[in-house]
Structure formats: C-alpha cells, structure tokens
Amino acid sequence: MAIIIDKNLCVGCGACLKACPYDAIDMIERKAIMNANCIHCGSCVDSCKFKAIASVASDAPKADLSSWKGILVFVETRDGAPAKVALELLGRGRGLADERKVPLYAALLGHQVGPMTDTLIAHGADVVLTVDDPQLAEYRTAPFCRALTGVIRDVKPEIVLIGATIIGRDLAPRTANRLRTGLTADCTELAVEAASGLLLQTRPAFGGNVMATIVCPNHRPQMSTVRPGVMKPIKADTARKGEVRTVKIGLKDVDLKVIVRETIKTAARHVDLSEAQIIVAGGRGVGGAQQFNTLRDLADALGAEIGASRAAVESGWIGHDHQVGQTGKSVSPKLYIACGISGAIQHLAGIAGADFVVAVNRDELAPIMKAADVAIVGDLHQVVPMLAAEIRRQRKEAVA
Amino acid sequence: MKIIVTVKQVPDTNDVRIDPATGTLIREGVPSIVNPEDRHAVELALQLREAAGIGTVTVISMGPPQAEVALREVLAMGADDAVLLSDRAFAGADTLATASALAHAIRKIGAYDLIICGRQAIDGDTAQVGPQLAEFLQIPQVTYVLNARFGYGGLLIDRQSDSGTQRLTVPMPALLTCLKETNIPRIPTLHGCIGAYREKKFTVWSAADIGAPAEQIGLKGSPTQVRRTFTPTPKGAGTILTGDPAVTVPKTLEILREKGII
To answer: What is the ipTM of this complex?
Structure first.
C-alpha cells in the first residue's frame, strides 16, 4: 500500500494534517506533501473531502497462498494445564474456522502433554498437534520457536493465534521472522474480511489513543498475538470428537544455549482482575486513597475485586496491580462498575470484554457514560455508599 | 566489551489527547522523546561496560533526520558513538522491516558482544523488533529483563515471566530487551551534553550504505499493512439515569437483577 496525494485535487485545506496521527504531512505552498514519518496508515484518506488522497495497493507480486488452510492456536500451558488464554483463543479460533470452513488446530508443545489433549478438543480443537520433548518441559525461546515453526510448516495454517502473554510476546515475533511473515501484536478484535478472506486484526495503537486494523495480504500464515481476557472460550463439550497427532521435531544444540537456573514463583496475588466476575473500579473522581474505601465497601457487598484507572494509580491512591486498561490489565467480568472514571480510550480498550458496564460520573458527557450500559449521573460519594447499602438491604430481605 | 543499544524517538503518547468534536488525535505540542524503556537499555549497557572495565556502547536508531536529537541525548548519558539510519527507503516499515534494516546496519558495524533494546516503544507497544532482530542475527534472546550481570562465562539474568521470575544464563553474543524495573537511567551531566555534540562520533547511513535490498526494508519489506485507523465508537447508547440517587440507585439494581447479573 502507498499513499498518493493528487496535487491537482488538493486545495490545501489542511484537514489531513489534523487527521494524521504520525505528523507525516507537511503543507508546502498550500499543497499537502507526505514526509518520512508516514507509515501508510490511511487515516488521511478518509479525512480528505476532495478525494485528493488515495491509498493504492503495492505492486508486490502475489504469492500462492491457497495452499495455506486452517486456523492454528498455540496452546500455552501453566503447571500441566492449558492457560486460560489458550482456551479463549480456541473459542475465537473455532468461530474463524467455521466461517472459513477449515479445521482448527491446537499446537501443544511441552513434556508429557498427553493428559491435556481432551480438554483442547472439548474446547473446540479439531486436531491437536503435540510435540513432546523433555527440553520443552519449561518455556525457553529457542526450542519452542523451533518446535512451533516445525508444526506450522507441517500443517500450513492460514492463521496462527498466540496469547499476548510474556511467553507469547517472546515467542511470536521470533517465530514470525523465521517464517518471514507478518505479525500483529496485542489484538483485541479478529474478523475475516468477506471479499478477500483476509484476517482483519484490530489492536490499540499509539499508546491506545487510536485503534488500527492490520492485514497481512501477501504472506502466510497471518499471525496475531491476542490479549488475554478479550476472547471468550466456548462451553466445554466432552462429547466432541477430535484427532491427536504427534509431530516430530529435532531440536538442535544451538537451541539449548539459554539455561534456566531457577524459577521463582511470586505468591498468588490477591488481585486477579483478569479472572474477576465483578469489578468495582475507581478513577480520578474518587479523589484520594482514603476515598477508595467507599469503593472497597461496595466491592465487599458484591464480592467484587477493586480496579483502578491509570489516573488513580499514578496519583498513588492504589497499587499498580489494580490498573485496568492498555498498560494495565484487560478484564472480562460480567459486571464492571466504573466510579469517577472518565473513560480514556486506553481504559475503554481494557474493559471491552466486560459483559455489562455501570458508570457513575458527575459529567454526563464523559466518554465512559457512552460506553456504559447504565450511566448514573451523580456524585459517586453519594451513589456508591447507597448502592452498597441497598444491595445489603435487599440481600437481608431475600434471606428473611 | 562491545555493546549496541537500539533507540527509538517517539511522540510522548501520554500527552496525546483526542479532539472530542472530530474524534481525531490532537498532535499539536506533543513532544518527541527518547522511548522510555530505551533509556533503561542505555543505562544497562553503561553499567555492564563499567563492570567490564573496558569497552564501548554504540547507540543506533532508524528514523527521520530529527531522530538525531534522541541519539545525542543518549550520547550525553555516556554512550560512545551513534549511528542513525535515515533514508526514505526505510519509511513505512513494520517491525520485520525495521528489524531487517537494523540487522543490516549491525552486520556492517561488525563484531559485538551484546545488543540491548527496550522491551517495547510507547507508540506501537508491539515488543516485536527485539526478538525479530535477534532472529535475523541468529543469536539468543532474553526478553523482559529485570537485571543482568556477568557470570557463567556469559550473562546471569533475572527476567519477568508470566508466573514470577526466571533466573537464567546465556552466552554472548546475545540480545536482551529490558524493562523499566532494570535500573534508574542516569541524568546526563553538562560535560556529557557538550561532549555529545562536540566530541562523539555520529554517523548517518542510507539504505545503500548498509547494503539493504529494497525488498527487505521499508514498505516493500513489510508483510503487514495498516488497513485503517480509527477512534473506537462507543457501543449503542445505554440507559442514562439522572437526578436523585434515591431513585437512580434502586433503578440501577432493578436493571441488574432483570438481566440476572446480580
């Protein structure tokens, strides 16, 4: 793709300068000119009312991509069980596979992984591809990259999905390079474009201030890392049938240069927002560390966890563990109660997986109010204690 | 001890605001800065050079000519020399094409013991260039580094993992990507700032200088393409409750109960 500005049509209005997130357009003698900052994102194309800007397809030759078929999910494991994100990706992968009418593969790399295959099939996999080797007992980049690359070359899937965990973000870029294909990081949305069959990979960009949709038109597989907590697993069905196939991979000495000496597990933290069913979260509007106790009381009444916006964390009112949003955690509770949070895009991206959002804010025009299912306009210091009291009162009534 | 540190000049995305009327980014007045984690990478390189007692730290960046400012800033911290890859042919690069250009340049620089990168840049947040560079150079990578020191004939490293901390050893040459927790970057001294502009070697290379074929860099060398960027549209309007909390609070709970949420 390249961006072409037709100087004859350009009237020098400057609308594209404002639309460009990368400061890549200069106005020279009342004509818009691209500078070296341009990453061909296409934002300017829609901004031009005079149709002076066009995005044209690159002249790169189209490789034969038709032999790549199927969706492959990399199954990350934790203590002998699939990580939650792996089941989420199988859930989304199942949808994509049905849409494309292709098989869903689960790549399971590790040592003595046999007991996990049934779970993967129950969660949607058609074929589980296992690589079993003592050298894969614990995650290390090089042997896992060798094994995953081998599996991908073996089945040639059109799409590869990997969780955007620390392991996934270490493994995916190295693997994508070995396959000399494209990789999109931290996707929050995946869809198939009807006309082209391309995977539309949407992710927050520019510090979470905008969303970008990325495609990989001329290389296969199309690879994405996907944020944990965004996709939903399908309901496990133990009656589902699937195939288990072993893939033989020869690891090399060069893969074993890094030696793990010790693994220190941090004690399970009390805060686990990504697994929480209900979250009560506070932002700048809470007003101070002390005032978070109001939220804690409501959380206590609901059996909820406490979340926070970046503003609240950076003000030192609450620990970083509680931060929700682009730089914090993505969450997918059934209920998210946002108190005094304005709703920066980073934060909204972080709560995109929430089933139901209640927002309490004095400002009716705050972005969070538009993202909420129920928006209560009012002072949180009045509303939140009343919510807690009312919930407790109704509980008591129900018991009595 | 020859250490190379990759540095990116980025817009300070913490300062970016959205125009509520048009939904577009307000870029005006957003300053360009050295990517925060890259300053920690430079600090780690300086500390390892000091621990080794001998060696050089070369900083390298790819970007428009004004990225020189970012390189001068890390030279002022104490890096020894700088290379800027600047050429229109590099423009439009995704992470793979960026890593490819850096790999060509590093091969031209010659023998090295260590490459250190920041984990990710705040304008893209991908964390991909480091591992992709390590793959091009066929050297081991250690990402999410918390600290690194010499030991076991190479480096002894603590890195963050999904469940805690991993302690591992890696022979050199290797590539590390480091986190903010690694160290506190030093503040350039006045002497350092003057030296950064007067004494330190600063080289600018074009695509031809590093012998990078056109199809491996820039737009042509990028498998991924941005189809569209947009400010997310809020989902369909929800229920807005205004007025006395004595009314809005019970109403909210009624809706939550109807939906079976509580």
So the answer is: 0.90
